[in-house]
Specification:
The chain is α+β, with helices and mostly antiparallel strands and about 900 residues long. Helices cover about 60% and strands about 5% of the residues. The strands form three sheets. A five-stranded antiparallel sheet has the order 1-2-3-6-5. A three-stranded mixed sheet has the order 4-8-7. Strands 9-10 form a two-stranded antiparallel sheet. α31 packs antiparallel against α32, α32 packs antiparallel against α36 (about 840-865) and α35 (about 815-835) packs antiparallel against α36.
């Protein structure tokens, strides 16, 4: 490269303080770097030593080793890319005369880590945090949605970077990549802020600053079609940190001209120099790879073949495969280079490099000769090799530091365990002291109640500490939660939680059984080979819960929810967390949120800390918590714990006004809740139908009396029951009319969904006998009679309300009544369309969704029955509002002017 003056000198000593995180391609470490002049700084080093999967993906896409790990020009491109992005964002904000809210962690130096055979990029250390979900605040209504603000800023920066020509950098901040939000850190911005006089200072919008800490990709940007299309237009199939050189130079020239006009000549010169260095490094990096799917016609040019040869020789020299004398011979001899390149293809890669060194490194040849002819050298080499391998095993916590290096055969066993087991299981199998300690802990978790309680409390404290480290909890909130969990009322549930955690020790045994059973099921054997291993853990949790119920039967501790939830695969570990709701809703709510957060972080590809997936799962979990709180037996205490606490009247008034305005019909809530319930029910049925195809009848899912039709009938029955309940709860005539309409429609639809006796002829003998025994079929006359009676009742109610309550006549033409019919009718239009297209499963699913919307409306009326009987909502802000802010209304009373009802 022509210009290296932008690079800082690497330090002489680097001390690792701690590991900050690990991604697909690199590990971020906080280090203390010291230079020759004695200066030291704390920096963050990204060590590009990816795992096997990432290296395989890159090699399949570009036919080359992972570039940032072994390519000098690629790591220099990382260095210059950060400088260019930082300067271009700064220059753009300066030219537009606006404040830039986005910074970049500036690069400091590049070095090669000999121990890990990987390049390292050092950048400045940034104090920051990820976005805090709104649901973890003590007052969600007063807390700003940091994720929404971050996504909006990311969209703006992505658009800017693409316009500049930094397409690959745009992918790193693209909100469409669900985990890209973890590439930015948030920090409170210092300086002045505007506080409105009628708004409390504690709820005013905070001023945040965003810092991009990761601009280096780990895998090709194939998850978003936009970047794939742009890559195809440039002649490449797989996009990977690509640049548009023409657009980048044009944008740089425009920004430099504007900076010079504003008197910022120094910034313009630095920007221009960095852009040229970036383009030169990127060109040599991309030309130094085979990349058959990236502009393959350029391989006809001798320049690219020469660049590829130089890149290979540089990498071999960096890995000490080739010495300087043979490197010069490789530049002039084509056949020598081809022979050495073919040797490098020998799997595994370590053997290929060893064979290459045997022909291209004289010192290595001498060491091989000494090893083969001198026994003392051979013995010394084996001792050194054993010590190195043992040191690596100890650093990975797979062996104990107290014991000495194993023998040669012992190392072979350790290597096999290293590739076949986890670090914890490896240590358990090879360390007697660790094994004895773990056995004692497992016996205590199974037999000792005091240890189970202490273990559960330890896990809870670790959870609060993790949330506190992410700024999701304040120190006061964490202390309060720990004190509540340590109370005697939660001791039983804490013990049960510890016992459920102890069941996880069976995972190493259950996982092979699951894989083997799934393999046998796919091979054509019974589906129970796959189902039974999945049910082992739920059965074990059920036994533990029953034991806890029997052991504490004299105390009257409820275990109903724990038994039900514990029998569910995958999520059954949250059984006692759900059961804690009866004793302490605050603690249970916190643990359920943490359970949802951990589940989201483990989702492959799209999951991770501070990702949009994690925040979305937390938001869905918060909605489910609110629904659970509404129907729990201890609804008053739960509602008080779920409602926001705020003593400021200026904050309460707009919140209550917003709630009262939405009392007409909860448009988004009904759609969201019904869609969620439909997705869970129908998704489970469809999954069960696809997994158990061999053991179930062909019409089990979509036929007459099938699972989907049975689900529709159950939902309609629940809707009719909820409608009758709401009819008894509401007092206003208009809402009574709507409740009657819901009941009549549900009854008529239920009669329609029940199979006719005539249709039984199309069933098999076994299905017909089952239907006759259960009575799950009625004649067409009865169906038509029920539908006619339902229609008559509804028309009678309409006529009665029209005459008795003239003020409600406008109800039948208002959106409050017409709205439920619109999505309901839309669902059945889609169902008719799917029926004509012969998409039976889609037709039944859409009908379930339509019926579920009716049920959601009926449940909403039950929850807000007290509010719906009020005649006016305009008088609510005349008196102080209650603290819980659940739902407030004013009702005219004969004895007093106003009366508040919640």
């Amino acid at each position: 490269m022509a210009a290296h003056h932008c690079l800082s000198e690497a330090p002489v000593n680097v001390r690792v303080i701690r590991t900050l995180g690990k991604g697909r391609a690199a590990t971020a470490e906080l280090v203390e770097a010291t230079w020759e002049d004695g200066k030291s700084r704390r920096l963050v080093e990204k060590v590009f030593a990816p795992g096997l999967l990432t290296r395989c993906i890159y090699r399949l896409a570009f036919a080359a080793p992972f570039a940032y790990q072994s390519n000098r020009h690629a790591i220099l491109a990382c260095f210059y890319r950060r400088s260019v992005v930082s300067r271009m964002l700064e220059a753009s904000a300066l030219c537009d005369e606006r404040e830039s809210l986005v910074d970049v962690a500036l690069p400091e130096y590049v070095r090669y880590d000999r121990k890990r055979d990987a390049y390292v990029l050092a950048a400045s250390f940034v104090e920051g945090r990820g976005p805090i979900p709104a649901c973890v605040h003590s007052n969600p209504m007063a807390a700003e949605n940091e994720m929404s603000g971050l996504v909006a800023e990311m969209k703006r920066v992505e658009r800017q970077l693409i316009e500049f020509g930094l397409v690959g950098s745009g992918w790193q901040v693209a909100p469409g990549a669900m985990v890209s939000t973890a590439n930015l850190l948030l920090s409170d911005r210092s300086g002045l802020r505007v506080v409105h006089p009628d708004e409390p200072e504690n709820v005013s919008a905070r001023s945040l600053r965003y810092t991009i800490i990761d601009l280096e990709s780990g895998i090709p940007a194939v998850l978003l079609w936009r970047y794939v299309w742009q890559s195809w237009r440039r002649g490449a199939v797989f996009p990977f940190d690509d640049l548009d050189s023409r657009k980048l130079r044009a944008s740089c020239a425009e920004l430099c001209a504007r900076l010079i006009c504003r008197g910022e000549r120094s910034l313009a010169e630095k920007l221009s120099a960095d852009v040229e260095c970036l383009l030169a490094a990127d060109e040599q990096w991309k030309a130094g790879e085979i990349a058959a799917f990236r502009r393959p016609w350029t391989w006809l040019s001798a320049q690219r073949r020469t660049c590829y040869r130089r890149t290979c020789i540089d990498r071999w020299q960096q890995q000490r495969v080739v010495d300087p004398e043979n490197a010069a011979a490789l530049l002039t001899s084509r056949w020598f280079f081809v022979f050495l390149w073919l040797l490098g293809l020998c799997p595994p890669s370590a053997i290929g490099r060893w064979l290459q060194a045997c022909f291209a490194n004289r010192s290595h040849q001498e060491r091989v000769r000494q090893f083969a002819t001198n026994s003392r050298v051979r013995a010394a080499f084996l001792v050194k090799y054993r010590r190195q391998q043992w040191k690596t095993l100890c650093e990975q916590q797979r062996c104990s530091n107290r014991s000495g290096p194993a023998s040669s055969w012992g190392l072979v066993g350790h290597r096999l365990l290293r590739y076949s087991t986890t670090a914890g299981l490896h240590r358990y199998l090879t360390d007697p002291k660790r094994r004895a300690r773990r056995n004692a802990q497992m016996r205590a978790l199974v037999c000792r109640g005091s240890y189970q309680i202490a273990f559960g409390r330890k896990v809870f404290r670790a959870t609060t500490q993790r949330w506190q480290s992410r700024n999701w909890l304040t120190e006061r909130e964490a202390t309060n939660l720990n004190n509540q969990f340590s109370g005697p009322q939660l001791a039983v549930y804490s013990r049960g939680l510890g016992m459920h955690v102890a069941i996880k020790f069976l995972y190493p045994l259950i996982t092979p059984l699951k894989l083997g059973g799934l393999t046998m099921a796919l091979a054509g054997r019974s589906v129970w080979f796959a189902v039974l291993p999945i049910m082992i853990l739920p059965a074990a949790r059920t036994l533990v819960t029953l034991f806890s119920l029997l052991a504490n039967r004299s105390h009257g501790v409820p275990h109903r929810h724990a038994i039900l939830v514990g029998a569910i695969p995958m999520v059954g570990s949250a059984a006692f967390i759900v059961q804690m709701w009866t004793a302490n809703p605050v603690v249970s709510k916190f643990l359920l949120r943490d359970f949802a957060s951990r589940f989201a972080r483990k989702i492959p590809v799209y999951g991770g800390p501070d990702s949009r997936t994690e925040h979305a799962v937390l938001a869905i979990g918060e909605r489910l918590l609110q629904l659970f709180a509404a129907f729990h037996s201890a609804s008053k205490e739960v509602a008080a714990s779920m409602s926001p606490k705020n003593d400021t009247r200026d904050v309460q008034r707009p919140v209550v006004k917003k709630q009262l305005q939405s009392m007409r019909w909860p448009y988004p809530n009904v759609l969201r809740d019904s869609l969620l319930l439909t997705g869970v029910c129908c998704g489970a049925l469809l999954a069960a139908g696809s997994l158990m195809t061999d053991s179930l009848p062909a019409q089990w899912l979509t036929g007459e009396n099938g699972a989907l039709e049975s689900t529709q009938l159950v939902v309609l029955v629940c809707t009719a029951i909820a409608g009758c309940w709401s009819l008894l709860r509401v007092k206003t005539s208009s809402w009574k009319s709507i409740a009657v309409a819901l009941v009549c429609v549900a009854v008529a639809a239920a009669a329609r969904e029940v199979p006719s006796a005539v249709s039984q002829a199309s069933l098999t003998n076994g299905a017909r006998q089952t239907a006759e025994q259960t009575g799950f079929a009625i004649s067409g006359t009865w169906k038509h009679t029920v539908i006619a009676v339902a229609v008559c009742i509804w028309l009678s109610r309409v006529a009665y309300a029209w005459v008795k309550f003239p003020e409600d006549r406008k109800l039948w033409f208002s959106p409050a009544f017409v709205w439920p019919a619109i999505p309901f009718a839309t669902c059945f239009v889609l169902a008719e369309l799917f029926e004509r297209l012969k998409w039976v499963a889609a037709e039944e699913t859409v009908e379930v969704w339509g019926y579920t919307m009716m049920m959601a409306v009926a449940i909403w009326m039950i929850r807000n029955a007290n509010v719906l009987q009020a005649r006016s909502f305009q008088e609510t802000d005349r008196e102080p509002l209650p603290a819980n802010l659940r739902v407030v209304s004013n009702m005219d009373c004969p004895d007093q002017h106003t009366e508040r009802a919640a």
